[in-house]
Amino acid sequence: MKELRDLLENNRRWAENKKSSDPEFFTRLVEQQSPAYLWIGCSDSRVPANQIVGLAPGEIFVHRNVANLVQHSDMNCLSVLQFAVDVLKVRHIIVTGHYGCGGVRAAMEEQRLGLVDNWLRPIQHTSHHHRHELAGLDDNARLDRLCELNVAQQVKNLCNTTIVLDAWSRNQPLSVHGWVYSIRDGLVRNLNVSRHGGEA
């Protein structure tokens, strides 16, 4: 239980430091959140959304799952998406994968890990669809490229949800973007797969 006590102590120090450096920080945070962004990212603990893009709590709405997937049967992701689009009125949805993703690697190598195999199945379909492009790459380059292709596919999946399509049909300003983060250097790469409005 020492580890949990350490976390609680870390929290106390963090809160004290925040109040010391910015006495109004928590007062502002209590106000209704109004982020302009929804981040859909991987659950990997090395990919903290707020810190990567230099935003404070309350400035970005976050959903994370293994390998940053958007599946039409995932009520958790769709509920976050609907709340972000219909209630918070975010203007940008950013799917952010990361190079070296363990979920993408497991799908690429067709590893058997258990229940998560079912979750990762769509990445195997993406890998199969792009097999000719991926075949000529070494293992590391293949993994990195599949991480990018997975993000691009999730952007397409998002754009085909009724939530995004309905927002576009009522001319709500909303764009969907695809990024990949590199743990090696801390930089984000824009994949230039953004979609705006009702583009096909």
Topology pattern, helix = H, strand = E: HHEHEHEHHHHHEEE
From the N-terminal CA to the C-terminal CA, the straight-line distance is 52 Å
Which segments are poorly predicted (pLDDT under 50) over 5 or more consecutive residues? none
Largest sheet: 6 strands, mixed
Helix content: 40-55%
- Percent strand equals 15-25%
Q: Using only CA atoms, what is the Rg? A: 19 Å
Strand element count: 6
Structural class determined from secondary elements = alpha/beta
General description of the model:
Strands 1, 2, 3, 4, 5 and 6 form a six-stranded mixed beta sheet that branches. The protein has 200 residues and is an alpha/beta fold. It has nine helices and six strands, in the order H-H-E-H-E-H-E-H-H-H-H-H-E-E-E. It is globular. Helix 3 (49-52) links the parallel strand 1 and strand 2 (60-65).
Q: What keyword list fits this structure?
A:
six-stranded mixed β-sheet, 9 helices
Give a short overview.
The chain is α/β, with parallel strands linked by helices and 200 residues long. It has helices spanning 2-21, 25-30, 49-52, 75-87, 102-108, 116-129, 131-135, 139-159, 162-169; strands at residues 37-42, 60-65, 92-98, 175-181, 188-190, 195-196.
